[in-house]
Write a structure and sequence with these properties.
With 233 residues, the protein is mostly beta strands. An 8-stranded mixed sheet has the order 4-3-2-1-5-6-7-8.
């Protein structure tokens, strides 16, 4: 059995799977580090320093690690095209910030932020800005064989009295196209925002797949505002 503590509140944000170390086996990652799957298909159930015990303290995610702090869905894929797996996550599912974590050496990561707040300065810098990115998917949305990011703002992720930042802001939904500006240069990536919708946003989860038979991926959203399908054009 694989277990790890959720902290004093019993709540947890930020979970994902993917082959982080390139050994062909999916690993498990959460807001404080990466748990490497061992040769016998098990994970060590204790946090400890170094990959030898199965857990790697990566220090990927900033801020307090209790309660609702931590990201939403987390994904491992080769963001910059240099041949190893990087990690994409929200910093805080109920707050601000999107980032990807470049694997510069085996199990060593450098953070690259690509969204912050909805201030004018941050929007000018990144092109987008919204809070409560409570769900995310990584899918090749335009058929260029490079995964893109589907993400948006969940309206009322918490009740209003919980103080989520910009809780009544417009619930937006974006596709962020992964643009490898210089594929030969590690870390040289931007995410080009494409608006899907400005009224629905996301829920706790979103799904991307084929609803009809036109061969173009569609987006399904279930949120506190209703159930929606966005058909790819």
């Amino acid at each position: 059995m694989f277990t790890f503590p959720f902290g004093s509140t019993g709540w947890m944000h930020g979970l994902g799977t993917g082959d982080v170390n390139g050994d062909g086996k999916p690993d498990f990652f959460e807001r404080s580090g990466v748990w490497l799957q061992q040769a016998n298909g098990t994970w060590n159930a204790t946090r400890c320093p170094g990959a030898g015990c199965g857990y790697v303290q990566t220090n990927l995610w900033d801020g307090a690690m209790e309660g609702n702090r931590g990201g939403s869905h987390m994904f491992a894929f080769d963001v910059d095209g240099d041949g190893d797996a990087d990690i994409v996550s929200a910093d805080w599912a109920h707050g601000w910030n999107l980032a990807w974590y470049e694997q510069t050496m085996p199990l060593t990561f450098v953070k690259h932020q690509f969204m912050a707040t909805n201030s004018a300065a941050d929007i000018a810098r990144f092109g987008i800005g919204f809070s409560q990115p409570h769900s995310m998917q990584v899918v090749d949305m335009d058929g260029d064989n490079v995964p893109d990011i589907v993400v948006g703002k969940m309206r009322f992720a918490h009740p209003l009295d919980q103080g989520d930042p910009d809780s009544q802001g417009a619930p937006v939904l974006y596709v962020l196209k992964t643009v490898r500006n210089k594929p030969s240069v590690a870390g040289s990536v931007t995410f080009e925002p494409h608006v899907v919708d400005m009224q629905v946003g996301t829920g706790r989860q979103l799904s991307v797949g084929h609803i009809n038979t036109d061969g173009i991926v569609d987006i399904c959203i279930s949120s506190k505002l209703g159930l929606y399908v966005f058909f790819g054009q």
